[in-house]
Amino acid sequence: MKDLKNNKKVLSLIILNEFCERYCFYSIRSILFTFLIKSYTLSTERATFLVHSFVFLCYLFGVIGGLIADGFLGRYKTIVYFNFLYFIGNLMILFSSYHVNLFTLIISLTFISMGTGGLKPCISAFGGDQLTSKKEVEGFFSLFYFSINAGSLFGIVLSPILASYNCVNNNCYFTSFKVSTMVHSLSIILFLIGSRNYIKKQPDKQFLIRLWRYLKLKYFFSSKIEEENEEVQIICPDMQKDVQTTIKIFKVFMFVPFFWMLNDQYSSSWIDQGNKMKSTINFFKYEFYLYPSQMAAVNAIGVIFMIPLFVKYVYPFFYRRKCLKNPLEKMYFGLAFTIGSFLISIFIQILIEFNYQINLLSQIPQYLLLTAGEILMSITGLQFAYSQSPESMKSLVFSGWLMTTAIGNFYIMILSVLNPFKILLNASFTLKTLIFSAIVGSVGLCWMMIVCKREFI
C-alpha cells in the first residue's frame, strides 16, 4: 500500500513538473515571433528563421540529452543538470527583454533550447520508469500528454496578456518572461521533492561504446577489434537485437518531419496571418480583443477535450470496423488532416491578399483539423516510441522521435532563407510559405503511403 501511494505521488510530481515546464516553454514560444518583430524590429523572414532555429535547437539537443542519459548520467541527473541550463536561459531572456540586445537574446534562446531539449527525451521516459505495470502505460502517457497541453494552454493564453501591459522601456515582454521564469523555478522544486522516492535506473556506461563497435562491425566492415577491454568487445545478441529494433522504429519515424514542418508553423506563419486579420470580437454588447498568438489555445483546448473523445468514441467506432488498429494508419491520417488544415489557411490567406476583412476566429477550423492530426500523429508516436523501444535505448528512441521535430523545423528554416515561389511576385511571404509547405507535406504523405508497411513492428 505504501509503495502504491509513493508511486502515485511521484507520478503526480512528474506530471505537475511537466505542466509547469510546458507553461514556461510555450509562454516564451507563443510571443517570440511578435517579440522579435516589435522589440527587435526584425523582418517576417528573419523572425521566422529565428523562431524555427530556436525550435530546431530545442529538439536537436533532445538527441544529445538522450545520449547523455542512456550512456553517462542516467535520466534523473540529466533532468536536474539540464534544468539548470534552462534556468540560466530564462534569466538571460528576461534581461534581453529589459535591455534590447540581439546577441544576449540569441545566447538566452540557445541555453533554453539546451535545457528544454535535454529534458524532452528524459522526463517522459523517466515517468515510464516509475510504472510498475504495462497496463499503466497508456493511462500515464494520456495524462502526461494532457499535462503538456494544459501547460501550453495557460502559457499561450496568459503570456500575450501579460506582455500587453506593465511596460518597461516601451516594451511589454518583461512581465511575461518574469512569470515564465518563476513557473520554471516551481517545476524544478516539484521535481526535486520526489527525489527520495524515484526509481532511478543507472545508465549503461558501456552502451555507447558497444553501440559504436556494433555499428562499425555491421556497416563499416571493420575486422580489427582492439584488445583493451574484453567486456566492451563482446557484441552480444541482445545488442544486435536492440539496434535492429531501433533501426526499424527510426524507419517509421522518417515521414514524421513532414508533419512537424506543417504543425509548428502555428508559431510563425499562422501568427503572421492572424496579424492581418480583424482581432476584435463582438459578443452581444461586449467587445473583446484577441491576440493572434492566442489562437494556438484552440489547439491546446482541442487536444484536452478531443483526447477523451478519441479514446472513448472515435477509436472504438473505427476498431469495430477494423480501421485504425495499426498505429501507422493513425499517423497516416494525422498527416492527412494536417495538410487539410493548411489548405484552409491558404484559402484564408488568399482572401486576405485580396483585401477581404477576415475575422481572427476564421482560423478555428484550421486549428481544429491541426489538433485532430496532432492527436493521431503525436500521441500515437509517443506511445509507439515507448512501447516498441528496447530498454537500453528508450531515451535514444525518444530522442529520435524528437529529432523528427528538429528536422521539420529545419525544413522551415531553409524555406525562410530560399523564399520559394518568387515567381508569385504579388504574393506575401506567408502565402508562399503556406503553399510550398502544403505541397511538400502532400509529397511526404504520398511517400508514406508507398513506403510504410501497414503492420505494427
From TrEMBL:
Per the record, the GO terms for biological process are: oligopeptide transport
Q: Record's InterPro entries?
A: MFS_trans_sf, POT_fam, PTR2_symporter_CS
Query: Is Membrane there in the keyword field?
Result: yes
One Pfam family linked to the record: PTR2
Where does it localize?
Membrane
User: How the protein sits in the membrane?
Assistant: Multi-pass membrane protein
Does Transmembrane show up as a keyword for this record?
Answer: yes
Q: Which residues form a coiled coil?
A: none
Q: Which GO terms describe its cellular component?
A: membrane
GO MF annotations in UniProt: transmembrane transporter activity
Keyword annotations: Membrane, Transmembrane, Transmembrane helix, Transport
Query: Which residues are listed as membrane-spanning?
Result: 49-72, 79-96, 140-162, 182-199, 249-268, 288-311, 332-352, 364-384, 396-414, 434-452
State the similarity comment.
Answer: Belongs to the major facilitator superfamily. Proton-dependent oligopeptide transporter (POT/PTR) (TC 2.A.17) family.
Q: What is this protein called?
A: Proton-dependent oligopeptide transport protein
- Name the species this protein comes from: Tubulinosema ratisbonensis
